[in-house]
Design a protein that fits this description.
Layout: E1 2-6, H1 7-17, E2 32-38, E3 41-47, E4 51-57, E5 60-63, E6 65-70, H2 71-80, E7 85-90, E8 95-99, E9 104-108, E10 127-128, H3 131-139, E11 156-164, E12 167-175, E13 179-186, H4 193-198, E14 203-210, H5 211-223, E15 229-232, E16 236-241, E17 244-249, H6 258-261, E18 268-273, H7 274-284, E19 294-300, E20 303-310, E21 314-321, E22 329-334, H8 335-343, E23 349-354, E24 361-365, E25 368-375
Antiparallel strand pairs: 1-5, 1-7, 2-3, 2-6, 3-4, 4-17, 7-8, 8-9, 10-15, 11-12, 11-14, 12-13, 13-25, 15-16, 16-17, 18-23, 19-20, 19-22, 20-21, 23-24, 24-25
């Protein structure tokens, strides 16, 4: 195998797979990247058996072939090289030589036959989505997904595709049991009258994807605004964009009934400037207790007073203006959970909606009905 490729192209490809390759695994090949030199270019793949990525990159192939070796080491080597082009040769015993203007690197690889095969993907059944729209949906929900939660499905992001009366919509939901985030987006769909009639009945498809898969999709979408395509098989997610294909196993299990968790608007409603609330929470939570980050919010006429205390450090309080005309009441919250929600909201004004002090708090943007977040209160 002999191939020449631009350094930036290869560096980009390897940067994309760093989050996929397994760094601590009993199978050495899972820490590796598979390079396949073909007539069309250089095919680069990585997998951890649950999540896989494959991309075809422009390269000059003098002799076809394939090899697999450490994704991390190749990435580290390329970051230190200043050459614009990288010449790479592979011997029959999988010794990889990377030549530079002043020297060369020799790295021991493994035969490509040791690399786990990735599934073959067709374009049929994939839904085109606006790249920016999908990125915003993931950003607004991923923070609420659980980390190593004992309830397995809470470690995944729920994707719901509905088609109610010919009006398709995609909805993402994330929760860890303490907070929940739901974001929706309507999909453009040009249909004939006959197709609209056939789609009149509500259709809904639900899948749960691992948090790791959602994180990698977000990173790919942040690179550029090319329109991605997404689809599902019985047990797999398929994401295609700009010559890249990402596949992920779907999570099995029943996702909690999130609609029951979201309180209906109409309780005690407090409108407040997002920046004011975010800034006050950051300052006051400095003196909150480390494990709970508990902050007490007192809602009074046209103001919110924030209070935190630490038995060994002291206490902090701050008052910010707000729009509220009801009777004064207080509620405690984990400041980190509130800050996570406020950090993904773009509206200047946010609305907090609660029935009582120990009721779930519905947080929404004043001018956006397609995003809702729920944060459970804590005792303070």
């Amino acid at each position: 195998m002999r191939v020449t490729v631009e350094r930036e192209v290869l560096l980009t490809a390897l940067h994309r797979v760093q989050g996929i390759v397994e760094k601590r695994n009993t199978m050495p090949s899972l820490a590796n990247v598979l390079l396949e030199a073909k007539k069309e270019g250089l095919d680069i793949s990585a997998t951890d058996l649950e999540l896989g990525m494959r991309g075809l990159y422009k390269a000059t192939v003098e002799a076809p072939g394939s090899v697999t070796f450490s994704a991390r080491k190749l990435y580290e080597i390329l970051k230190e090289i200043n050459d614009q082009e990288i010449a790479m040769t592979v011997t029959e015993d999988c010794l990889v030589t990377i030549k530079t203007a002043r020297g060369e690197f020799k790295v021991v690889g493994l035969p490509s036959k040791d690399f786990p095969p990735l599934p073959t993907i067709e374009r049929d059944g994939l839904i085109p989505l606006p790249g920016t729209g999908l990125l915003q949906l993931i950003r607004k929900t991923l923070f609420a997904v659980g980390d190593n939660d004992t309830r397995y499905v809470l470690n995944g992001l729920l994707i719901v595709v509905t088609n109610a009366g010919g009006l398709p919509m995609i909805r993402l939901v994330g929760t860890d049991g303490h907070r929940l985030a739901m974001a929706e987006q309507r999909l453009e769909a040009e249909k004939s009258e006959g197709e609209k009639k056939e789609s009149a009945d509500t259709q809904e498809e639900k899948v749960i994807i691992p948090k790791k898969a959602a994180t990698e999709i977000r990173r790919l979408l942040e690179e550029d605004e090319d329109e991605p395509m997404i689809g599902f098989t019985k047990n797999m997610l398929i994401f295609r964009k700009s010559g890249l294909v990402l596949t992920s196993r779907l999570m099995e299990g029943n996702y909690p009934n999130y609609q029951q968790v979201i309180p209906k608007a109409g309780g005690k409603q407090i409108a407040v400037n997002r920046d004011d609330l975010e800034g006050a929470l950051r300052r006051v939570s400095v003196l909150s207790q480390n494990k709970t980050y508990a902050v007490k919010l007192t809602f009074s006429k046209k103001a919110i007073t924030l209070l935190s205390s630490h038995p060994d450090m002291g206490e902090a309080n701050e008052e910010i203006p707000a729009s509220f005309d009801g009777e004064e009441f207080s509620a405690g919250f984990n400041a980190r959970y509130l800050l996570d929600v406020l950090g993904v909201m773009g509206s200047e004004t946010v609305v907090l909606d609660m029935e009582a002090s120990l009721s779930p708090c519905l947080i929404r943007e004043k001018d956006n009905a397609l995003f809702k977040a729920v944060v459970m209160p804590v005792k303070v």
